[in-house]
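Contributing new records

If you add data, match the layout below exactly. Sequence lines come first and carry their own label; structure lines follow with theirs. Keep one chain per record. Anything else will be rejected by the validation script.
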Amino acid sequence: MGNVMFLNKAEFEQLEFQPTPLDLGVFVRDLVDDMQHNYGEQHRLILKIDQQCGRPLFDSKLLLQILTHLIDNAIKYSPNGGKVLIKFACQNNQVIFEVSDDGIGIPRKDQHNLFNAFHRGSNVENISGSGLGLAIVKKCVDIHGGTISLNSDISLGTTFTVMLPRRVLDADQLLKVTGKSIPDYQSGSHFLH
């Protein structure tokens, strides 16, 4: 029910986009650690940070939706003992997130509809799901002004790639927007909760 409500709000543009400076390394590391703890040893989550990205502006609630749904799906559609690789890097003015699994893959004929609400791959009939997760991910990516794509092969796995614009505040802008100076943000993760 929560996914339906979230998507309904997103569709009618009632979601508030509240970007704040976010330490992506800490944010993603904490998320992956929490998810690994929740899933235990059934799946191995591997985080690869290719480059520090500083503190770009992202809406942490929407970014959490994006990454949680992608990682959950990677786990759900992978065999027990499977690996899920989560990577992110900054290139030019973009932050690129990749979530890859060694799962069942997505039939090519289903791929163009996957981001539509209630659409699921034709090969997942025995795996529970609502068909809302990727629609939510797409909406959150759109709100950030980014793009999402996928590459998938049956029985080999799937990789989702999210590219979000990397916007950064300079010291004066940060103070004006948040009331805090850069040293206040260097002491820890302030935007995870």
